[in-house]
Amino acid sequence: MEIKKVMVIGAGQMGGGIAQVSAQTGWETVQYDINMDLVNKGIAVIDKNLSRNVSKGKMTEDEKAAILGRIKPSISLEDAADCDLVIEAIVENFAVKEKVFKELDRIAPPHAILASNTSSLPITQIAAVTNRPDKVIGMHFMNPVPVMKLVEVIRGLATTDEVYQIVEEASIKMGKVPVWCKDVPGFVSNRVLQVMINEALWELYEGVAPAENIDNIMKLGMNHPMGPCELADLIGLDTILSILNVMYDGYGDPKYRPSPLLKQYVNAGWLGRKTGKGIFDYK
Ligand code: CAA
Ligand code: NAD
Hints:
The chain is α/β, with parallel strands linked by helices. It has helices at 13-24, 36-55, 61-69, 94-107, 123-127, 161-173, 189-206, 211-222, 228-235, 237-251, 260-268, and strands at 5-9, 28-32, 71-74, 85-88, 113-116, 136-141, 150-155, 177-181. It contains eleven helices and eight strands. Bound molecules: acetoacetyl-coenzyme A (CAA) and nicotinamide-adenine-dinucleotide (NAD). Residues 9-15, 33-34, 38, 89-92, 96, 100, 117-119, 140-141, 143, 235-236, 239, 274 line the site of nicotinamide-adenine-dinucleotide.
């Protein structure tokens, strides 16, 4: 199957990045969110990213206009009706994703692949709410999407070889490097990464060191591009809490228990960069 039209569900930081890269690949791209304000905010970020590329001489104004011209704003899931690939990037919550996948399964054409950018939720469980579990797959992009090379590809129990190959080829066309792993809670990436971030949050909770010091120790000592606290704020503390809870439930292992400080920040609405305040202040 040749991919011509892609729909991205969610215009947050991941959905916006995926829509940008999809349009850059040359695909007609539908950018959906629950209201036009959110869709427009997502497209404004894409516009800003592309303008930065123009000012750096990496792209012309015409190329930027062509990419933006391939992005169609949407607040109707019915727009999935003529798409070949749908990539879902909404909140990390199974109940919310379940509703959307049921709708997408009803609307999207029979040949369409339904991919989820979930960070941790079992693809097999998402696939099971549809009548096409063979065409459901995990396409786990990394943040910030336009920059990071990896797409972690996760096959559900029923995902066919053909669908896996189409998604592998699509990821390469998007300029990414697909790397597969099995369908386990948190996959490979977040089983490793979130345990580190959570440990940093436990250290912060215990007063072992201030956030700046924790970050400097990991940046200067381990050559990480960002410290775990800064990275947590980039990812979103709500997303991190959801991922840890999925792994805590999935494995029943106390090593995934979220730091109480993480829960407190999320309860306070301090979600990181996206709300202007998280572990650090961005206002
Ligand atoms: N969107 C688009 N482009 C961006 C960007 C963004 N949000 N942030 C930075 N960039 C671009 C810059 O424009 C710049 O582009 P050029 O090379 O073309 O000039 C390039 O990225 C480097 O940016 P900077 O020089 O400003 O900053 P930097 O060198 O510090 O790099 C970074 C920024 C790439 C984000 C780097 O700090 C980094 O790699 N951080 C770690 C990111 C990471 O670990 N991501 C994975 C998170 S986990 C995840 O995604 C999975 C999950 O399920 C939670
Ligand atoms: P975000 O909070 O930035 O954006 C989520 C978007 O989903 C919002 O715009 C929201 O309006 C929208 N949304 C919520 N309910 C919806 C619904 N019913 N229908 C359509 N849209 C809905 O979140 P994000 O960071 O972009 O994360 C999105 C997904 O990507 C999550 O599954 C997350 O685990 C995963 N992910 C996140 C990162 C990261 O670093 N933040 C990295 C990889 C994967």
